[in-house]
Amino acid sequence: MEIQKPKLFTPDTTYFKLIPKENYTKLLDILEKRLPVSYQVYNAVLYSFLFQDSDELNLQFYSYLGKLEDDSIIVGNNIGMKTKETDEGTLLTFISVKSPEDLTKEISTQLVESFSFGPNKYTGLSFAVERNSSPNLMQALLNRGHIITVQACDMVLLKNTLPENEANQTDEEFAQNNINTNKYVLKSLEVEDAETVSKYWSYGLYTHPTHYIKQCIQTYPSVGVYSKESGELLSWVLNYSFGSVGMLHTPQKWRGLGFGTIVMKAIVRQLQKLKIHPGTGIEPRNTVSAHLLIGKLGFVKKHSVDFIFTT
């Protein structure tokens, strides 16, 4: 299947105005005051300073009525890849508000009109919004004829920084202190690993997930444990382009060896060195990840988000 770059998303600009990159420092200041809420949007903006963005990840940010103030409504878009001429990929929209009541019925309707209709025809459209703000947005989507599916997620952030002795270790020292380096290798993922990661990824947010995963591996921090003998990838974790750690997975036959803990510690170490707030979302039913992140690594639930998928 042929993979093509998506066109930049152009919403109806009556209500939401594109934020130029020269204003990203001010945008970060606004979002920082909302932390830990809206950390994904904050991290996504921060990524634009820290990493060389792939043209194919297309992160864009908008503000309601073009205002950049403490109470502004901020929207961040992450466009996925398209696979045919008749569509323009997928669109994931993150919404940041200062207070839940700011996302009124009227503004929710305007947001849906701006980002889900017009010249762009996406094969997938989804929204991520704070739980307390989601009812108005869901109703606005239903009013415009969308069929929606809602996935609740608890957003967790790391409570403390790593111990100084661990943070200051070289990568080689960290690996030696955490795995049997005679049998295993701890390193960043290779682009070729995208096929393996894609097989185990639960979410179909993107038209062509393997291609999206390749872009994430090439652009952002990632960690994997490999068999030194065979080179097989045994456990891994990546960073999503929208500011979150994700895709953490260890295939069944390699579980029970502590690999999930090791790759999470390793990527947290990388992110904290870059002054990034390590965080991710956990589905309420995912007790394994909750036990690892909250029980073992010190992540703390900070707020809840609804991912709203539309057709």
Q: Would you give the CATH topology of the largest domain?
A: Aminopeptidase
- How many beta-strand segments? 12
Shape call: globular
Q: What's the architecture of the largest domain, going by CATH?
A: 3-Layer(aba) Sandwich
Terminal CA distance: 22 Å
Number of H/I helices: 10
Strand content: 15-25%
Largest sheet: 8 strands, mixed
What is the CATH class of the largest domain? Answer: Alpha Beta
State the low-pLDDT regions, or none. 1-8, 81-87, 117-123
* CATH homologous group name of the largest domain: Gcn5-related N-acetyltransferase (GNAT)
How many structural domains does the protein architecture include? 2
Rg calc: 19 Å
User: Reading side by side through the largest sheet, how are the strands ordered?
Assistant: 1-2-3-4-5-12-6-11
**Which structural class fits the helix and strand makeup?**
alpha+beta
Please bin the fraction of helical residues: 25-40%
Mean pLDDT: 84
Spell out the helices and strands N to C. EHHEEEHEHEHHEHHEEEHEHE
Q: How is this structure best described in words?
A:
The chain is of the alpha+beta class and about 300 residues long. It has 2 domains: about 15-155, Aminopeptidase, CATH 3.40.630; about 155-300, Aminopeptidase, CATH 3.40.630.30. The protein contains 10 helices and 12 strands. Strands 1-2-3-4-5-12-6-11 form an 8-stranded mixed beta sheet, with helices on both faces. It has a 4-stranded antiparallel beta sheet with strand order 7-8-9-10, with helices on both faces. A hairpin with a 5-residue loop joins strand 8 and strand 9 (about 235-240). Helix 1 (about 25-30) packs antiparallel against helix 2 (about 40-50) and helix 7 packs across helix 8. The longest helix is centred in the last third of the chain and has 15 residues, at about 260-275. The chain is globular. The two termini are about 20 Å apart.
